[in-house]
Amino acid sequence: MNQENSTSITELAKALYTINRHAKTASEPKHLYFIKKETIKKLLFENRAKKIGLHFSDHPKFSNQHSTLLIKVEDYYFHIPPEKKDFNQLEHLGTLDQSFRNPQAKMSLSSAKKIVYNYIDYKDKPDKKTKNNKRYTSSYFTPSSLGKMEWPPTKPYRKFET
Known about the structure:
This protein is α+β, with helices and mostly antiparallel strands and about 160 residues long. The protein has helices spanning about 5, 10-25, 30-45, 85-90, 110-120, and strands at about 50-55, 65-75, 75-80. A three-stranded antiparallel β-sheet has the order 1-2-3. Helix 2 runs antiparallel to helix 3 and helix 2 (about 10-25) crosses helix 5.
């Protein structure tokens, strides 16, 4: 059995659920959504996940309604952005059923990421040290000249009389 298939579909589904749950509340969710999407794409390619249909999104982009692709992995359902062919091949299911919830899964985010990283063979794990090397500079910022005075002064000191 090769490395990808050694991870059970149940463990992958729970890992995806954990990553998705954290991505919804993360301050920078881009990476979490990326690894979720890559994992689902690989599961679909291996026929270990199934495309169910299209849903209208709860979060319209720029006030425009758009659709998301509903995917089933084991007993869990996830949404990812659809491809153009999905609109021709799949049924549109309308609005999202707000009463439906995925089964609860108890797994830490670090464990979930480890499972998914191994499954998709992800090598470029983000390095916390290089994450924010860029310093913020404002166009309104004027550097202070305090502590940069020449001593002794090169310009004559003028005393103001009152």
